[in-house]
Amino acid sequence: MQRPQNAEGRQSRIAEYFGSNVFDLRAMAKRLSAHDLEIMKKVMKIGGKIDSSLAERVAAAAREWAMEKGATHYCHWFQPQTGATAEKHDAFLWFDKEGNPIERFTGPELLQSEPDASSFPSGGIRSTFEARGYTGWDPSSPMFIVETENGKTLYIPSVFISYHGEALDFKTPLLRSNNTLSIEAIKTLHLIGEKKVTHVTTSVGPEQEFFIIDKKQAMKRIDLSLSGRSVFGRKSPKGQELEDHYFAHIPSRVQAFFNELEVELYKLGVPVKTRHNEVAPGQFEIAPIYESSNIAADHNQLVMKYLKSIALKHGLVALLHEKPFAGVNGSGKHVNWSMTDSSGRNLLDPGATPHENLVFLTFLCGILQGILDNSEVLRASVASAGNDHRLGANEAPPAIISIFLGNTLDKILNAIETGNNDKINAEKIMIDLGLSHIQNVAKDNTDRNRTSPFAFTGNKFEFRAVGSSGSINYPTAILNAAVCDGLAKLNKKLEAKAHNGTVSSNDLLMILRHVIKETKKIRFEGNGYSHEWRDEALQRGLSNFANTPEALSVLSNKEKTQFLVKAGVFNDDDILSRLAIQQERYVKQCLIEVNCAIEMAQTQVLPVCFSYLKLLLKNVKMASDLNLPSPAKKVVETFSDAVSHVVSTLETLKTQLEKISDGDALEHHNIGNTSHIISTHFMLKLQNLREAVDTLEGLVPHDLWPYPKYSEMLFGM
Ligand code: ADP
Ligand code: MG
C-alpha cells in the first residue's frame, strides 16, 4: 500500500495527514468562536461539563466538518462490557417545516442517544431497573471519522450508563477514577507545599502484542476462528528457542500490513510509534506515544479494531488472544502509567533536586500503599479466560501482584526505612542517601525485571499483567482507584502533622519512612517466575489466584471493594454486576473452546484417524498375505506397532471425549459455581483431550492431518 500523496504528488509526511480525520482542536479552531474553543480546550484537558447551547454549536460545527469530508452518518461509539466497541449509526437526514429533506445534527443528538440496552451485558443490574440505557458524549475524547469503502461516519466517543446512572461500560469507571484521583493527588500536593497545582491527570501508553497468521490457515481451524485460541496443536519442532524472532527483520507481508495499519491510525490521530517482532514466532508488537489515559484507551480500541480489519485485507488474521498457541509466549498489553500535574510535571519522575525527589517519594509511597491494600482487586481486573494461560506461566508476570522498583530505588527506600535518627534533616538525608541523584540513577537503571507484574521503569509504572485482548479502561480505572486509596490514607497522616495546611519536610520524611516500612511486603526485586517466590509470597500473605473464578471471588467481599465505592467508581450493585458479567464471560469463553474441541475431535480428527487406521490394517493384511522373509517381516511389524499406537491413543481420545461432553456436570449450578467447575474440571479435561489429539497429530501422515499445524501457521510469513 502506498502512503498518502500530497498535492505535488510526493509521499506525504506523517505530520501532514496525522489527525486529518479527527475533529480536534485544530479543526474546531476553524469552526468555533475563540470563547467556545477555550471551553473545549479546558474540557479536553481536565474534563468538565458542556451546556446545551455550546453542545448545539459544537454539533453544528462537527456536522459541517464531517459532511465536508463526505460523512453521511453519525454514531455514538461506546464500550459495553464485551471488551469491544459498539455503534449504531444515524443519518444526518431530517426534514424542514415544508417537508424538504435536509441535513441536521443537533445538540441533544450529540449529547445523548438511547440504544436498546437489553442485549448488552448488564450483570442483572437492569432486571431490577428499567431496561433502558443511555449513551452520552464524552467531550474529553475528540470525535473522528471512520472511512470505509462504502461511506464515512462521524464517531462520537461516548459513555454508556443505565437509566439510574449505573455504569454499563468500561469508559465511565475510568473517567470517574481519573476525577477522584485528581482530587486526592491535589490534596497530597497541597499538603506537601505544592499549592499551585490545580489538577492531576493520568497518562497511559499501552504496548499491544498480537500474532499474525495466514487467513487461509486460520479459516481452516474453527478453534482459531471462533475462540481465538488453538485448543489443539502439537508443539512445532522449532519454537522460539533460538531467540531469533524478537526484533528480527519484519517480514515483508507483515510490513505491508503495518504500513496500511499505520496510515489508517495516523489519520485517526492515534500516535503509534513503535513496531517490532516479538519473542514468539508470528508475534508482533505495536506501541503508541503515551497520551491521557481516556484517549489512550479509546485509541487502543481503534488499534485493536484496525489490527483485525487491515489484517483481513492483507489475507492475514491478527490474533489478539492472550494465548493463541501453547508452548510459545502469549500476548499481553503492558500498560505504562504515570501521573502529571497541572504544570505538566510527571509526578513519577524522580527529579533532579532533593525537593523534587520528595514529591516523587511521596507519590511512590501512595502508590505502594494503594497497590498493597488493593492488590487482589487489581488482580481481578485483569482476570479472563485468555489471561489465565499467561499469568503464572513462565513467560508472563505471575498472578501474584508485587512491585518491582529496581536496585537503586529499592536501596534508597531501605535506607530511608532503617535511618534511625528521629530528628531528621530531610535535605541532609536526601543528600546523604544520594537522593539528589535519583533521577539519573533511575533512568540508567535498565535492569528491567520482565517477571514483575507492576514495575517501575524510569518515570512510570508498567502494569504488565494486563491481557492483550481486552479494554485497558477497566484495569486502568482499578489502578487509579487503588492509588487514590493509597493517597487518601497518606493524606490522613499528612493532615495530622500539617501546620497551616503544610507538612514540614522532616515530618513528611518520617511519615514516608513509616509507609515504606508498612508496605515492604508488596516489593519484590527477584525472579517472579521462581517457585521460591511463590512460597515467599505465601509467607508474606500475598495472594496468588491461579485462575479467573478464584481471582474474581474478591469482588463479592465488600471490605475489599470498598475503595472503589469511596473513589466513586462503582456502587455496591455495580461491583456485583461486574462480577456476574466477568464470571459469565469466563464460562462462555471456556465453553466455546470446549465445544470447538469436541467438534474438531469428532468431525476432523476421528475420521482422519479412522482412514489412516484402515490404510494401516490393509497394509498389515497385505504384508502378512505375502508371507515375507524374516528381515522384511520386521519392517512389516512396524505397521502393527503403528496400529497399536493409533488404536490405544484413539481409546484415550474416546474416553476424554466422553468425559468432556458431559454437559450434566454444569446443570443446576449458579454462575459462580459453574465458573469454578469449569476452571477446576473442564479446563483439565480439555488439556487431557488435547494430549490425545496432539499425540495423534504426531502419528498420522502429515498430508492427511485435517487442519494446519503449528509449524505451518507460526512460520508462514
Ligand atoms: P518497552 O517495550 O521497552 O517497555 P516501548 O517503547 O515499547 O518500551 O513502550 C513504552 C510505552 O511507554 C510507550 O507507549 C511510551 O509512550 C510509554 N511511556 C513513556 N513514558 C511514559 C509516561 N511518563 N507515562 C506513561 N507512559 C509512558
Ligand atoms: Mg515494547
TrEMBL record:
Q: Which InterPro entries match?
A: Gln-synt_C, Gln_synt_N, Gln_synth/guanido_kin_cat_dom, Gln_synth_cat_dom, Gln_synth_gly_rich_site, GS_Type-3, GSIII_N
For molecular function, the Gene Ontology terms on record are: glutamine synthetase activity
Q: Where is the GS beta-grasp domain?
A: 72-165
Source domain of life is Bacteria
All copies of the GS catalytic domain together span 175-605
Instruction: Please name the GO terms of the biological process aspect recorded for this protein, alphabetically.
Output: glutamine biosynthetic process
Task: Tell me its family.
Answer: Belongs to the glutamine synthetase family.
- From the Swiss-Prot or TrEMBL record, give the protein name: Uncharacterized protein
Q: Which organism is it from?
A: Silvanigrella aquatica
